[in-house]
User: What shape does this take?
Amino acid sequence: RDNDGDSAFILACDKGHKDVVQMLLENSNIDLKARDNRRYTAFMIACEGGHKDVVQLILNNSGRIELNARKHNGWTAFILACQKGHKDVVKLLLDHSERIDLNTRDNDGWTASMSACYNGHKAVVQLLLENSNIDLKARTDNQGCSSFMYACEKGHTDVVKLLLDHSERIELNARTIDGWTAFMISCFRVHKDVVQLLLDLSDRIELNARKN
Assistant: This one.
């Protein structure tokens, strides 16, 4: 290992060297579960880097890896892929959803769905919405925010619209720990397009809700 704790396998996955990864996977002595000094596994690094072909190769050897391994802050490979917006990798992971915890939370209560919505990754959010096991009502521990609230806070109009198209799976008038609703947050942040989307649902949105 180098000074960062990277093994040869971790380095190959980090750079997306598919052919080298294939060679290493064919050797049963390679430790696929090794971690670097940041507590990343090679699988996490490949997912975060968006190296689809490498991720597929590792998944083909999924009996030798920990699909739900966590970093020191609780991030998993699935959270990292969603956070970075790597839709092809997210699709691969969703195809193995029987073994992947899709609703796992990091140390602050963030889920993969929250990360995708917060960062405005529309294509990833679309994939998540196609999976009925994704919990869109989950809330963070420190603020009580949901995926929908984060999309509204950041003004990601396309993501908000996608979520509203599946409004039966979200809580439109949910409140944060401080009593903010998604509508209040959107108005405060002056995200006019998002505000208009919510006004179009005025029969279901509490327009006159007040903070605590």
